[in-house]
Specification:
The protein has about 425 residues and is of the alpha/beta class. Helices cover about 30% and strands about 20% of the residues. It is built from 13 helices and 19 strands. The chain binds guanosine-5'-triphosphate, magnesium ion (MG) and zinc ion.
Length: about 425
């Protein structure tokens, strides 16, 4: 049973060991959401890319994939040369189609060869290997340039794969070997060499795909599609229109806010951090401007001109806030500076503390931003993370240990919102 709501509205919360509330989960068979064009379709509508080419056979010779190239051209990507043919599984006899749990995964063609590469019927991009075996959830990571999006994504996936998944009796693995390489490369840069990533280029960025699987087989696995786009594009209406289609199709948003880019505290931080310089981006990009762009791009088109996509507002680089030394803004003993491990369920006690504290912080340092968030987003929660645990300058000089703080918490909140994990109190 997916739905637990045992002690939901109880008055005497403190006496209860564990309030568990998990939203009912969609039941299979699951429709596939294409992570590229976002069209939804059933699992037996997929197409296959033939695993071989046969010269002289018009059906199986290499061809230009017009649909795929149209998709790519629309996003200013290079067009591809001839590719292996496309197989429509429904034209093959029944015994040549292989299904697992009602999901079509492989076909055997007239040459008796097996093809496993499933394609979206609408754009011909390759589907993640778990599509259809559980729900697909699109997570957009947004924020100004240099807010820490790419470093956060790298640190988040590193932490989830190595530590958090285990605490929730689950495992997280890369959706395909290509993405796996990309993620690994970034993880090596940060966690082994203690170097930083280059700014994400202002072009079309492919998503990172991750599979979440619980040890308990009765829980559906999830395919998570993470989009990390360049901050430079976030304030460019043309870029957002073209490359930001995932944002309005998101199941969850992680909105990263860089404290160093907030005018009210920037000066203070610059002075206190003068010694170790670290990262002080010269470019201001107010988080509020990003919201204004999102409003024009899609929120206006939603009912009531508000979006109910769960949105985690996350203050990044929390390690830098320690140097504020200003109790008015954030206490020295703030929860933000202490790591927190949610285990088996999303801990509401911890959540209430950090959410309350960061809400107050945001109201003080950037009330216009907090104001637009309250107006246009109906389901938000506030967090603070340090993807690195310290200033990169110090990291590479010091003992080089990256110690992420609270990085998984915003994602766990999203998992809770989507019904993947339980929430409770201690
Ligand atoms: N002190 C501190 N600095 C951080 C942290 N995370 C990121 N930074 C700094 O922020 C810089 C930018 O991080 P990125 O993740 O590349 O920023 P981004 O948001 O992806 O930037 P664009 O791709 O240009 O949009 C890094 O080079 C680091 O110097 C952190 O946890 N603590
Ligand atoms: Mg980036
Ligand atoms: Zn598609």
């Amino acid at each position: 049973m997916g739905l637990f709501n045992l002690f939901g509205g109880s008055k005497d919360k403190n006496n209860i060991k564990n309030v568990v509330k998990r939203m009912p989960m969609e039941k299979g068979p699951f429709k596939i959401t294409c992570p590229y064009c976002f069209i939804r379709f059933t699992t037996n509508e997929v197409l296959f890319r033939a695993s071989h080419a046969e010269e002289g056979d018009p059906e199986y010779e290499m061809k230009i994939d017009k649909l795929l190239n149209e998709y790519r051209e629309g996003l200013d990507m290079d067009v591809l040369p001839e590719l292996n043919a496309i197989i429509s599984p429904m034209e093959l006899p029944r015994e040549s189609r292989f299904e697992v749990d009602g999901v079509l995964l492989e076909v055997k063609d007239k040459y008796d060869k097996v093809s496993k590469e499933r394609l979206c019927p609408y754009c011909h991009n390759i589907l993640p290997n778990t599509s259809g075996r559980g729900p697909t959830k699109v997570i957009s990571v947004i924020g100004s340039s240099q807010a820490g999006k790419s470093v956060y994504m790298t640190s988040l996936l590193y932490t989830l794969e190595r530590y958090t998944a285990e605490r929730f009796n689950a495992s997280l693995t890369a959706g395909s070997s290509k993405y796996n390489e990309e993620i690994k490369q970034n993880q090596r840069i940060i966690f082994e060499y203690n170097k930083m990533l280059d700014p994400t280029p202002k072009q079309h960025i492919d998503p990172l795909i991750e599979n979440l699987k619980f040890k308990d087989d009765s829980r559906p696995a999830g395919t998570f599609v993470f989009y990390d786009i360049p901050g430079e594009g976030m304030s460019d209406q043309v870029y957002i229109d073209k490359h930001g289609a995932h944002i309005k199709n998101s199941d969850g948003i992680i909105f990263l806010v860089d404290p160093l880019q907030m005018r009210s505290i920037r000066k203070k931080l610059t002075i206190t951090n003068k010694e170790d310089k670290g990262d002080f981006t010269e470019r201001y990009q107010e988080p509020k401007d990003i919201v204004v762009n999102l409003i024009e791009n899609f929120i206006m088109k939603q009912s009531g001109e508000r979006t109910n996509i769960p949105t985690a507002v996350v203050v990044t680089k929390s390690d830098m806030l320690k140097n504020l030394n200003d109790e008015d803004y954030i206490s020295e003993n703030s929860n933000a500076f202490r790591n927190c491990e949610h285990k088996t369920f999303f801990n509401f006690n911890e959540f209430d503390n950090i959410d309350g504290e960061i809400k107050r912080f945001m109201s003080k340092v950037n009330s216009p931003f907090k104001g637009v968030m309250d107006t246009y987003f109906s389901n938000t929660a506030y967090f603070a993370v340090s993807a690195l645990g310290g200033n990169p300058r110090n990291l590479s000089m010091g003992d080089g240990v990256v110690t992420p703080i609270r990085v998984d918490e915003p994602f766990l909140w999203l998992l809770y919102q989507m019904g993947y994990i339980d929430g409770g109190r201690e």
